[in-house]
Specification:
Elements (H helix, E strand, L loop, with lengths): L1 H16 L9 E4 L4 E3 L13 E4 L2 H6 L3 E2 L14 H12 L7 H6 L4 H12 L3 H18 L4 H7 L5 H12 L10 E10 L2 E7 L4 E6 L5 H12 L1 E5 L3 H14 L16 H8 L1
Protein backbone atom coordinates (compact mmCIF):
# COMPACT_ATOMS: atom_id res chain seq x y z
CA UNK A 1 0.00 0.00 0.00
CA UNK A 2 2.91 2.39 0.71
CA UNK A 3 4.24 1.95 -2.82
CA UNK A 4 0.78 2.56 -4.27
CA UNK A 5 0.32 5.70 -2.17
CA UNK A 6 3.77 7.00 -3.12
CA UNK A 7 2.98 6.48 -6.78
CA UNK A 8 -0.30 8.35 -6.41
CA UNK A 9 1.56 11.27 -4.87
CA UNK A 10 4.13 11.15 -7.65
CA UNK A 11 1.42 11.18 -10.32
CA UNK A 12 -0.49 13.97 -8.60
CA UNK A 13 2.63 16.15 -8.44
CA UNK A 14 3.19 15.48 -12.16
CA UNK A 15 -0.42 16.51 -12.80
CA UNK A 16 -0.06 19.76 -10.86
CA UNK A 17 3.19 20.54 -12.68
CA UNK A 18 1.73 19.48 -16.08
CA UNK A 19 4.83 17.34 -16.53
CA UNK A 20 4.90 16.20 -20.17
CA UNK A 21 7.32 13.37 -19.31
CA UNK A 22 4.37 11.50 -17.84
CA UNK A 23 2.36 11.54 -21.06
CA UNK A 24 1.29 7.97 -21.72
CA UNK A 25 2.39 6.84 -18.25
CA UNK A 26 -0.91 7.50 -16.51
CA UNK A 27 -4.39 8.98 -16.87
CA UNK A 28 -6.23 10.68 -14.04
CA UNK A 29 -9.93 10.20 -13.38
CA UNK A 30 -11.57 13.10 -11.56
CA UNK A 31 -14.43 11.87 -9.40
CA UNK A 32 -15.98 15.32 -8.99
CA UNK A 33 -16.45 15.80 -12.75
CA UNK A 34 -16.55 12.23 -14.09
CA UNK A 35 -13.87 12.84 -16.74
CA UNK A 36 -10.37 11.43 -17.22
CA UNK A 37 -7.44 13.52 -18.41
CA UNK A 38 -3.84 13.54 -19.56
CA UNK A 39 -1.13 14.63 -17.09
CA UNK A 40 -0.80 17.98 -18.93
CA UNK A 41 -4.49 18.89 -18.99
CA UNK A 42 -4.88 22.71 -18.86
CA UNK A 43 -8.03 22.53 -16.71
CA UNK A 44 -8.02 23.62 -13.07
CA UNK A 45 -6.33 20.94 -10.99
CA UNK A 46 -8.61 18.80 -8.81
CA UNK A 47 -8.04 17.99 -5.17
CA UNK A 48 -5.86 14.95 -4.48
CA UNK A 49 -8.82 13.22 -2.82
CA UNK A 50 -10.81 13.53 -6.06
CA UNK A 51 -8.16 11.81 -8.22
CA UNK A 52 -7.94 8.20 -9.29
CA UNK A 53 -4.98 7.15 -11.44
CA UNK A 54 -4.98 4.58 -14.25
CA UNK A 55 -2.29 3.09 -16.43
CA UNK A 56 -4.46 2.94 -19.55
CA UNK A 57 -7.44 4.66 -21.12
CA UNK A 58 -9.36 1.38 -21.04
CA UNK A 59 -9.02 1.19 -17.25
CA UNK A 60 -10.40 4.73 -16.94
CA UNK A 61 -13.29 3.89 -19.26
CA UNK A 62 -14.15 0.79 -17.25
CA UNK A 63 -14.20 2.94 -14.11
CA UNK A 64 -17.02 4.94 -15.84
CA UNK A 65 -14.97 8.07 -16.62
CA UNK A 66 -15.46 9.82 -19.98
CA UNK A 67 -12.70 11.55 -22.00
CA UNK A 68 -12.00 15.17 -21.10
CA UNK A 69 -12.95 17.56 -23.91
CA UNK A 70 -10.22 20.05 -23.03
CA UNK A 71 -7.14 17.82 -23.14
CA UNK A 72 -8.50 15.05 -25.38
CA UNK A 73 -6.79 12.08 -23.65
CA UNK A 74 -7.58 9.84 -26.61
CA UNK A 75 -6.01 12.09 -29.22
CA UNK A 76 -2.68 13.13 -27.72
CA UNK A 77 0.31 13.13 -27.78
CA UNK A 78 0.17 11.53 -31.22
CA UNK A 79 -2.50 13.02 -33.41
CA UNK A 80 -5.11 10.55 -34.53
CA UNK A 81 -6.90 10.19 -37.83
CA UNK A 82 -10.21 11.85 -38.61
CA UNK A 83 -11.86 8.41 -38.52
CA UNK A 84 -10.70 7.71 -34.96
CA UNK A 85 -11.65 11.18 -33.76
CA UNK A 86 -15.06 10.93 -35.40
CA UNK A 87 -15.78 7.51 -33.83
CA UNK A 88 -14.68 8.65 -30.36
CA UNK A 89 -17.12 11.55 -30.64
CA UNK A 90 -19.83 9.18 -31.89
CA UNK A 91 -19.41 6.98 -28.83
CA UNK A 92 -19.71 9.97 -26.50
CA UNK A 93 -22.90 11.07 -28.24
CA UNK A 94 -24.43 7.66 -27.54
CA UNK A 95 -22.17 5.70 -25.14
CA UNK A 96 -24.78 2.97 -24.60
CA UNK A 97 -24.87 2.04 -28.29
CA UNK A 98 -23.87 -1.49 -29.33
CA UNK A 99 -21.99 -1.11 -32.61
CA UNK A 100 -22.62 -3.48 -35.50
CA UNK A 101 -21.33 -3.82 -39.04
CA UNK A 102 -24.17 -1.84 -40.59
CA UNK A 103 -23.41 1.13 -38.31
CA UNK A 104 -20.02 1.55 -39.98
CA UNK A 105 -21.59 1.29 -43.42
CA UNK A 106 -24.10 3.98 -42.51
CA UNK A 107 -21.18 6.29 -41.66
CA UNK A 108 -19.24 5.29 -44.81
CA UNK A 109 -16.42 3.96 -42.64
CA UNK A 110 -14.59 0.72 -43.33
CA UNK A 111 -14.90 -1.48 -40.22
CA UNK A 112 -11.48 -3.09 -40.67
CA UNK A 113 -9.84 0.33 -41.03
CA UNK A 114 -11.44 1.52 -37.80
CA UNK A 115 -10.32 -1.65 -36.02
CA UNK A 116 -6.74 -1.32 -37.26
CA UNK A 117 -6.38 2.38 -36.46
CA UNK A 118 -7.85 2.03 -32.96
CA UNK A 119 -5.64 -0.95 -32.23
CA UNK A 120 -2.54 0.95 -33.31
CA UNK A 121 -3.38 4.08 -31.34
CA UNK A 122 -5.00 2.74 -28.16
CA UNK A 123 -4.02 -0.93 -27.99
CA UNK A 124 -7.64 -2.01 -28.37
CA UNK A 125 -10.09 -2.21 -31.24
CA UNK A 126 -12.95 0.24 -31.66
CA UNK A 127 -15.48 -2.39 -30.59
CA UNK A 128 -13.43 -3.05 -27.44
CA UNK A 129 -13.29 0.70 -26.78
CA UNK A 130 -17.06 1.10 -27.19
CA UNK A 131 -17.68 -1.98 -25.06
CA UNK A 132 -15.41 -0.69 -22.29
CA UNK A 133 -17.23 2.65 -22.28
CA UNK A 134 -20.61 0.88 -22.15
CA UNK A 135 -19.55 -1.53 -19.43
CA UNK A 136 -18.12 1.37 -17.42
CA UNK A 137 -21.58 2.93 -17.41
CA UNK A 138 -23.04 -0.41 -16.32
CA UNK A 139 -20.65 -0.74 -13.38
CA UNK A 140 -21.38 2.85 -12.36
CA UNK A 141 -25.13 2.15 -12.39
CA UNK A 142 -24.68 -1.01 -10.32
CA UNK A 143 -22.49 0.85 -7.81
CA UNK A 144 -25.16 3.54 -7.42
CA UNK A 145 -27.76 0.93 -6.51
CA UNK A 146 -29.48 0.38 -9.85
CA UNK A 147 -31.17 -2.96 -10.38
CA UNK A 148 -28.78 -5.16 -12.34
CA UNK A 149 -31.54 -6.47 -14.62
CA UNK A 150 -32.62 -2.94 -15.51
CA UNK A 151 -28.99 -2.02 -16.13
CA UNK A 152 -28.41 -4.89 -18.55
CA UNK A 153 -31.63 -4.08 -20.45
CA UNK A 154 -30.79 -0.38 -20.63
CA UNK A 155 -27.46 -1.28 -22.21
CA UNK A 156 -29.05 -3.51 -24.83
CA UNK A 157 -28.36 -6.94 -23.33
CA UNK A 158 -31.40 -9.16 -23.80
CA UNK A 159 -30.24 -11.75 -21.28
CA UNK A 160 -28.27 -11.81 -18.04
CA UNK A 161 -25.90 -14.37 -19.57
CA UNK A 162 -25.04 -11.96 -22.40
CA UNK A 163 -24.35 -9.21 -19.90
CA UNK A 164 -22.17 -11.50 -17.76
CA UNK A 165 -20.28 -12.72 -20.82
CA UNK A 166 -19.58 -9.14 -21.92
CA UNK A 167 -18.36 -8.32 -18.42
CA UNK A 168 -16.07 -11.36 -18.44
CA UNK A 169 -14.58 -10.41 -21.80
CA UNK A 170 -13.86 -6.93 -20.49
CA UNK A 171 -12.13 -8.20 -17.36
CA UNK A 172 -9.26 -9.73 -19.26
CA UNK A 173 -8.37 -10.66 -22.79
CA UNK A 174 -5.67 -13.28 -23.30
CA UNK A 175 -2.26 -11.98 -24.36
CA UNK A 176 -1.01 -12.62 -27.88
CA UNK A 177 1.09 -15.59 -26.81
CA UNK A 178 -0.76 -17.82 -24.39
CA UNK A 179 2.13 -20.30 -24.31
CA UNK A 180 4.06 -17.94 -22.04
CA UNK A 181 1.19 -17.34 -19.62
CA UNK A 182 -0.94 -19.10 -17.06
CA UNK A 183 -4.62 -19.33 -17.86
CA UNK A 184 -7.12 -18.24 -15.22
CA UNK A 185 -10.89 -18.59 -15.57
CA UNK A 186 -13.38 -15.93 -14.50
CA UNK A 187 -17.05 -16.49 -13.74
CA UNK A 188 -19.94 -14.28 -12.68
CA UNK A 189 -21.70 -15.58 -9.53
CA UNK A 190 -25.13 -14.32 -8.47
CA UNK A 191 -25.47 -14.23 -4.66
CA UNK A 192 -28.06 -12.94 -2.23
CA UNK A 193 -25.79 -9.98 -1.48
CA UNK A 194 -25.26 -9.12 -5.15
CA UNK A 195 -23.23 -10.37 -8.12
CA UNK A 196 -19.63 -11.43 -7.54
CA UNK A 197 -16.72 -12.37 -9.79
CA UNK A 198 -14.57 -15.39 -9.06
CA UNK A 199 -11.15 -15.97 -10.64
CA UNK A 200 -9.39 -19.32 -10.34
CA UNK A 201 -6.89 -21.59 -12.01
CA UNK A 202 -7.72 -25.27 -12.34
CA UNK A 203 -7.09 -25.99 -8.67
CA UNK A 204 -7.42 -22.88 -6.46
CA UNK A 205 -9.38 -19.65 -5.96
CA UNK A 206 -7.34 -16.46 -6.47
CA UNK A 207 -10.00 -13.77 -6.19
CA UNK A 208 -13.62 -13.45 -5.10
CA UNK A 209 -15.03 -9.94 -5.09
CA UNK A 210 -18.31 -8.07 -5.48
CA UNK A 211 -18.82 -6.69 -8.98
CA UNK A 212 -19.81 -3.28 -7.60
CA UNK A 213 -16.57 -2.84 -5.66
CA UNK A 214 -14.88 0.34 -6.78
CA UNK A 215 -11.41 -0.37 -8.11
CA UNK A 216 -12.23 -3.96 -9.07
CA UNK A 217 -10.82 -3.49 -12.57
CA UNK A 218 -7.43 -2.45 -11.23
CA UNK A 219 -7.46 -5.29 -8.69
CA UNK A 220 -7.99 -7.79 -11.51
CA UNK A 221 -5.29 -6.12 -13.61
CA UNK A 222 -2.80 -6.34 -10.72
CA UNK A 223 -3.60 -10.03 -10.33
CA UNK A 224 -3.06 -10.61 -14.04
CA UNK A 225 0.32 -8.90 -14.00
CA UNK A 226 1.54 -10.38 -10.75
CA UNK A 227 0.66 -13.95 -11.75
CA UNK A 228 1.56 -13.38 -15.44
CA UNK A 229 -1.78 -14.86 -16.35
CA UNK A 230 -4.45 -14.48 -19.00
CA UNK A 231 -7.99 -14.28 -17.61
CA UNK A 232 -10.75 -15.64 -19.79
CA UNK A 233 -14.41 -16.57 -19.17
CA UNK A 234 -14.95 -20.16 -18.13
CA UNK A 235 -15.71 -22.76 -15.49
CA UNK A 236 -13.33 -24.70 -13.25
CA UNK A 237 -13.72 -27.18 -10.43
CA UNK A 238 -12.95 -24.46 -7.79
CA UNK A 239 -15.59 -22.14 -9.31
CA UNK A 240 -18.20 -24.90 -9.25
CA UNK A 241 -17.22 -25.75 -5.67
CA UNK A 242 -17.41 -22.11 -4.61
CA UNK A 243 -20.79 -21.56 -6.24
CA UNK A 244 -22.16 -24.62 -4.45
CA UNK A 245 -20.71 -23.55 -1.10
CA UNK A 246 -22.00 -19.97 -1.42
CA UNK A 247 -25.51 -21.30 -2.05
CA UNK A 248 -25.26 -23.52 1.03
CA UNK A 249 -23.83 -20.66 3.08
CA UNK A 250 -26.71 -18.33 2.27
CA UNK A 251 -29.16 -21.14 2.99
CA UNK A 252 -27.62 -21.38 6.44
CA UNK A 253 -26.35 -24.94 6.03
CA UNK A 254 -22.62 -24.21 5.68
CA UNK A 255 -20.12 -22.30 7.81
CA UNK A 256 -16.79 -23.87 6.81
CA UNK A 257 -15.68 -23.33 3.19
CA UNK A 258 -13.51 -26.05 1.64
CA UNK A 259 -12.69 -24.47 -1.77
CA UNK A 260 -8.87 -24.30 -1.95
CA UNK A 261 -7.38 -20.78 -1.80
CA UNK A 262 -4.22 -19.32 -3.26
CA UNK A 263 -3.33 -16.27 -1.18
CA UNK A 264 -1.33 -13.76 -3.22
CA UNK A 265 0.91 -11.72 -0.94
CA UNK A 266 4.37 -10.97 0.37
CA UNK A 267 6.17 -13.50 2.61
CA UNK A 268 5.16 -11.40 5.64
CA UNK A 269 1.52 -11.32 4.56
CA UNK A 270 1.60 -15.06 3.96
CA UNK A 271 2.95 -15.68 7.47
CA UNK A 272 0.21 -13.51 9.01
CA UNK A 273 -2.55 -15.23 7.04
CA UNK A 274 -1.20 -18.68 7.88
CA UNK A 275 -1.08 -17.77 11.57
Amino acid sequence: MIVIQERKIEYYNALVEKNSEYEGVFYVGVTSTGVFCRPTCPARKPKFSNCEFYESAQQALLASFRPCQRCGPLSHPNQVSDIVRFLVEAVEQNPEKRWKGQDFKALSIDESTARRQFKKRFGMTFVEYARARRMGLALKSIRSGENIINTQLDLGYDSSSGFRDAFSRIMGAPPTRLDDSRIFKAAWLDTQLGPMIAITDESKLFLLEFVDRRGLEREVERLRKRMKAAIIPGQTVPIQSLERELTQYFEGTLTDFKTPLHLVGSPFQQSVWNH
